């Protein structure tokens, strides 16, 4: 075998190694990939920094630049803070209502005026974009906020898009509420706005 | 300095770590967690050979961590090189907390840190999570662990904040 053959074999081996699929995540587990990791035992802080990718198969994908989790004395996570270019892909696997009542500007209310009565369909994917996402363990909520550079946080579903100065997702009820200036966009076709003469509707 | 304490024991060259550390005048930076290596204690010696132990006790005599290497060698500058390091840390009640493995790393007697540019795998004893990466620093006194590159964490959903409400 001459040197040229050896080089080609090496290239082929490298190509093979590079094509290896990532290790699948076992059932019941999630994973976090990042550039760096730190664990502060005394403070109970766990931090992932740099190109953070959190994956919970079938439920959640989150990317950001910094993910800081704090555990309390009992070992439970009291807060988890994701910051900078936060993108959350939430795969709803139940049909619990995501949106409830109508919205007004000002005090915290349900934001999704447009989506009154709608529910998240099974296996529907929802997206959230924000500067900072804070999970608060005591009330099981996730608070999304923006920044002057990125603007307000926003949530997009298959049928609606909502934004507000602050969006709060209650994980127990599956409901989003917002505060501050809010905006909603929705697909008209999902509502029975144009009844036909025969009594049927245009709803999908 | 270390040559003064070398002696033949069980057919291998060994170093009395306790005497070596005392000779080095080592003290913990933090009085609250003043770690003391007990000379003459279980495995309180290093050298060439399998299962070389390096235990850490706090000021109350509680075992905080144990470093075990396939072989350990002094490399100067108050540093020890561990090959095939297996490190265990313990909770205050004595139960195991973290278990880590690194093929090659350096322990600094001066700063009480373990570091390496190579890989590290850490597993929480109860299986809650495991972390791996390339290049790390572990501070024995504070319990702080930093992995510098290619950090991968796998965690059990049932024990995490991401479990379903």
Describe the 3D structure.
The complex is a heterodimer of chains A (204) and B (165). Chain A has 204 residues and is mainly beta. Chain A has one helix and 13 strands. In chain A, strands 1, 2, 3, 4, 5, 6, 7, 8, 9, 10, 11, 12 and 13 form a 13-stranded antiparallel beta sheet that branches. Residues 10-20 and 94-122 of chain A have low confidence and may be disordered. Chain B is mostly beta strands. Helix content of chain B is 4%, strand content 56%. Chain B has a nine-stranded antiparallel beta sheet. The model of chain B is unreliable at 1-47 (pLDDT under 50). Classes of the chains: A mainly beta (204), B mainly beta (165). The interface between A and B is medium-sized, with 31 and 24 residues. Strand 2 of chain A pairs antiparallel with strand 9 of chain B.
Detail the topology: elements first, then pairings.
The complex is a heterodimer of chains A (204) and B (165).
Chain A: H1 3-18, E1 29-34, E2 36-40, E3 45-56, E4 60-71, E5 77-91, E6 109-110, E7 125-136, E8 141-145, E9 154-156, E10 160-163, E11 166-170, E12 175-179, E13 183-186
Chain B: E1 6-9, E2 12-15, H1 17-23, E3 46-57, E4 63-74, E5 79-90, E6 96-108, E7 113-124, E8 129-139, E9 145-156
Antiparallel strand pairs in B: 1-2, 2-3, 3-4, 4-5, 5-6, 6-7, 7-8, 8-9
């Amino acid at each position: 075998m001459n040197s040229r053959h050896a080089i080609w074999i090496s290239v082929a081996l490298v190509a093979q190694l590079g094509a290896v699929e990532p290790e699948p995540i076992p059932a019941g587990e999630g994973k976090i990939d990042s550039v760096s990791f730190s664990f502060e035992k005394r403070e109970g802080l766990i931090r992932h920094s740099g190109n953070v990718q959190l994956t919970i198969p079938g439920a959640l994908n989150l990317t950001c630049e910094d993910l800081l989790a704090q555990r309390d004395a009992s070992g439970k996570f009291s807060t988890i803070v994701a910051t900078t270019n936060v993108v959350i892909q939430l795969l709803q696997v139940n049909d619990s209502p995501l949106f409830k009542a109508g919205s007004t500007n000002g005090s915290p209310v349900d934001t999704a005026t447009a989506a009154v009565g709608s529910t998240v369909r099974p296996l529907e994917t929802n997206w959230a974009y924000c500067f900072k996402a804070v999970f608060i363990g005591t009330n099981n909520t996730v608070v999304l906020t923006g920044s002057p550079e990125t603007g307000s946080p926003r949530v997009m579903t298959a049928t609606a898009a909502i934004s507000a100065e602050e969006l709060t997702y209650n994980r127990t009820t599956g409901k989003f509420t917002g505060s501050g200036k809010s905006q909603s966009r929705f697909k008209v076709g999902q509502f029975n706005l144009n009844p036909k003469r025969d009594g049927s509707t245009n709803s999908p | 300095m270390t040559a003064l304490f070398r002696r033949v024991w069980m057919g291998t060259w060994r170093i009395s770590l306790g005497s070596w550390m005392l000779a080095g005048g080592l003290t913990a930076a933090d009085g609250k967690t003043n770690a003391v290596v007990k000379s003459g204690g279980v495995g309180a010696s290093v050298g060439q050979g399998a299962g070389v132990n390096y235990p850490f006790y706090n000021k109350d005599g509680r075992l905080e961590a144990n470093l075990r290497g396939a072989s350990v060698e002094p490399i100067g500058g108050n540093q020890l090189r561990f090959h095939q390091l297996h490190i265990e840390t313990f909770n205050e009640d004595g139960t195991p907390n973290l278990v880590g493995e690194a093929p090659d790393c350096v322990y600094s007697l001066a700063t009480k840190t373990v570091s390496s540019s190579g890989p590290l795998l850490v597993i929480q004893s109860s299986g809650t999570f495991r972390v791996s990466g390339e290049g790390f620093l572990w501070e024995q006194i504070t319990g702080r662990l930093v992995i510098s590159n290619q950090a991968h964490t796998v965690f059990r959903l049932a024990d995490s904040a991401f479990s379903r409400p």
